[in-house]
Amino acid sequence: MLGGRFSGRRMLAMVVKEFRQMRRDRVTFAIMVGIPIIQLILFGFAINSDPKHLPTAVLCPDPSVFSRSILTAMRNSAYFDIVAKPDTEAEATRLLIMGEVLFVVNFPTDFSRNLVRGERPALLLQADATDPVAVSNAVGALKTLAKSALKRDIAGSLTYLRADFSPVDVEVHPKYNPEGITQYNIVPGLMGVVLTMTLVIITSLAVTRERERGTMENLLTTPIRPLEMMLGKLIPYIMVGYMQMLLIVVVAHVLFQVPLLGSLSLLFAVSLLFIGANLSVGVTFSTVAKNQLQAVQMSFFFFLSSILLSGFMFPFRGMPEWAQWIGTSLPLTHFLRVVRGILLKGNGFSDIWVHLWHILLFLVIVLTIGLKRYRQTLD
Fold first, then answer.
1. What's the distance, CA 172 to chain centroid?
2. I need a surface site. Which of 41, 263, 280, 338 has the fewest CB within 10 A?
3. How far is Cα of residue 224 from the mean position of the Cα atoms in its chain?
4. At residue 79, what are phi and psi to the nearest 5 degrees?
5. What is the pLDDT of residue 159?
6. Which pLDDT does position 308 carry in this prediction?
7. CA trace torsion 52, 53, 54, 60 (10° rounding)
């Protein structure tokens, strides 16, 4: 009989039973509590849409009191961290290509002389505009700084230079995405996001599903060895990953007109490392999770951390140092720089290897943990 009077006692017994089940499933309980806390910390402390302390290189062949005043004002603004003083423009451009600096400030050779003559010398600012949001505020700040920094130095016979306009003409050259098109930054980045989301979840479910359905025992009775079983499960997903990449590249170029300046063969070759890193994460999760729900929750936790701390949604340089350390350990952070570097800058292997070894190190560490736990699971 389904009817009858409502019993608070029976309901209370049901509540107690659910809490006991929740307590026994410690992994799920930890994820339910942990994910909101992590989200709170990331959104509250790590996310910042006004990045400061951006790495900057300075070419200053004419050191003078005027150039020193401008550089001091840049440092005090907190937008610019002067981390390099290259001797040549080629060296400065190299730093931009490698992603080691976001700005190059170039003082002309006769900067002081032209300033004293009232000729408004041009101060050139080259900005890496592959992420327009990351550099826009700093570019706007420099135009104001150049005017205010020279007020104290322009005195005596130079007082006439204190006009409404700035005595220095700040020219901004945004490179690699001169029009600041958001799609040029987002669409190539989606390649890494899609691969992370799909490959980690699918792989983490692959082994867990076998265990839940009870088919793992059938596989273990066959002559197949653990390594053969693992490779047999992973190779189809590698092919799926490449199909996703090809689809995104075609849509990005045809539909969004994203430029393809670099080598696509290089992009597809080095992407094998990133695909392998995501698959290794999925395999490791599958050895930890007791059921498919736990596997999905773990994958979501990894995906959430990757997408927030990699620089895909928010400027990487805007995060505090501890968040940048965590982001640097994630493969998506480096893959975004590889993809954007190849497609938007035309980078070659020598320009991206510094990011590849980070992904390779992550792959080796996580895959070693996954294989070790996988053997324990089979035992």
1. 25
2. 41
3. 39
4. -80, -30
5. 63
6. 87
7. 130
